[in-house]
Design goal:
Layout lengths: L1 H28 L7 H12 L11 H20 L3 H4 L2 H25 L3 H9 L5 H11 L5 H24 L5 H23 L4 H9 L7 H19 L4 H19 L4 H27 L2 H5 L2 H26 L5 H11 L4 H13 L4 H34 L9
Helix pairs in contact: 1-2, 1-13, 2-13, 3-7, 3-12, 3-13, 5-6, 5-8, 5-15, 6-17, 7-8, 8-9, 8-16, 9-12, 11-12, 15-16, 15-18, 16-18, 17-18
């Protein structure tokens, strides 16, 4: 029995080791190139997985840890949504840009493949934004709190939330009417939970949240995780994709903290960030690499050729409408950077391709090509975008007008 336990934990040990090695390599390579840690985590996953040296094969422990990582990635993306920053005209323009992208994406997929479930999956994939992936890049670069950061946040919010809703409606296995009713039921539960969390908590709970932040009890963190698991449970019971529950949980927890525990917000954020980005999210990205079917991709040169095509389509279908409709008040460089950040795609690509391959609507080679293009988008687009934002800042400091929201 002990030998079986060791055998089951060995792949997890290799994955966690890869998650530790990734930032060390990023630091070394930082002398020559700025490399997002998420890309290296996926690359190391490919290396240690079946497509590489074969040190890791997925088991129940790895699947559970990776699932929690995806849940917390979506949770942190939802938590970052500040309605006061992305509301009003900014969010409306972002919504209009996504609607345009949806029409363009479905149209392009239909022209390439004809109308099919595969075309629906690819068309929807072209409208996503990897908000949870680019947020750490924006935060680490110091631009998240700027007007530009608010625009990326608004665009990313719609580009992450709207596709999740469409997944729940059209790819959950239900008929559209049934899916719509279940989705309404989910939103009713989410709104009720948010309303309840916005109400004042008892003095006892407030005291325990405050005094246990420095102890082993950590009630605030446990409450956050309870909300995550509860919303995951609700979405699963209703037969909806779990990412919808995780995203909603992030919004609910933000409401709870800012309304009931404003003095502890910063400390709770720090602890949730540590749990999410320090433990589970890196495991998710490494496992994404482990699952990446490189052998299927390289054995099909037609699929390989679609990687740059998908990368270009991310820019044209997702980035171009954002640039056209959402750049008002930004400098020219910032407008292009906004389009580049909005055109990044990865976590929902993994979700969509998993749905497609499990249902038999997408072969492994084309699924790998789509995920590979997403990896390149996360590697290339944010780096170019940060360079452009840096140039815009230089011009602003030189005396040119700064960007304004509106």
């Amino acid at each position: 029995m002990e030998a079986e336990t060791v055998t089951g934990l060995t792949p997890l040990l290799v994955i966690v080791t890869a998650a530790v090695v990734a930032p060390l390599v990023v630091d070394v390579l930082g002398r020559w190139v700025v490399l997002p840690g998420v890309v290296l985590e996926i690359a190391l996953g490919v290396l240690i997985g079946p497509s590489g040296v074969g040190l890791v094969e997925e088991n129940d422990v790895i699947t559970a840890a990776s699932g929690m990582g995806l849940a917390l990635l979506m949770f942190m993306a939802g938590y970052e949504i500040d309605v006061s920053r992305v509301g009003g005209g900014t969010l409306r323009r972002a919504g209009a840009a996504w609607a345009c992208a949806l029409g363009l994406g479905l149209g392009a997929a239909w022209l390439l493949l004809g109308w099919s479930q595969t075309a629906l999956i690819i068309g929807l994939a072209l409208t996503t934004t990897a908000l949870g992936t680019v947020l750490p890049i924006l935060r680490d670069s110091g631009v998240l709190d700027s007007v530009f950061g608010a625009r990326v946040l608004a665009s990313g919010t719609v580009g992450e939330f709207a596709p999740i809703v469409v997944i729940a409606l059209l790819l959950s296995g239900y008929r559209p009417l049934t899916g719509s009713l279940l989705l309404l039921a989910f939103f009713a539960v989410a709104v009720l939970a948010a309303w309840r969390m916005s109400r004042g908590t008892s003095a006892r709970i407030q005291r325990l949240v405050r005094v246990t932040l420095g102890t082993s009890t950590q009630l605030a963190v446990r409450l956050c995780l309870l909300v995550v698991v509860f919303m995951l449970w609700v979405s699963t019971v209703l037969g909806l994709d779990s990412v919808l529950g995780s995203f909603a949980a992030g919004i609910i927890v933000r409401v709870m903290l800012f309304n009931n525990h404003p003095g502890e917000v910063e400390e709770v954020e720090t602890r949730m960030t540590a749990v999410s980005y320090g433990v589970f999210i890196p495991v998710f990205f490494v496992v994404t690499g482990v699952r990446f079917d490189l052998s299927a991709l390289v054995s099909d040169w037609g699929a390989v050729a679609t990687v740059p095509m998908f990368l270009l389509l991310f820019l044209l279908i997702r980035g171009l409408p954002v640039w056209f409709l959402c750049r008002k008040g930004l400098s020219g460089h910032e407008g292009v950077a906004l389009a580049l950040f909005s055109a990044t795609a990865l976590p929902l690509l993994v979700v969509l391709t998993t749905i497609g391959t499990r249902a038999g609507d997408m072969n492994s080679a084309h699924a790998a090509a789509l995920v590979g293009a997403g990896m390149l988008s996360v590697l290339i687009f944010p780096q170019v975008g940060l360079v452009l934002v840096g140039r815009a800042r230089v011009r602003t400091h030189a005396g040119e007008p700064a960007a304004t929201d509106g």
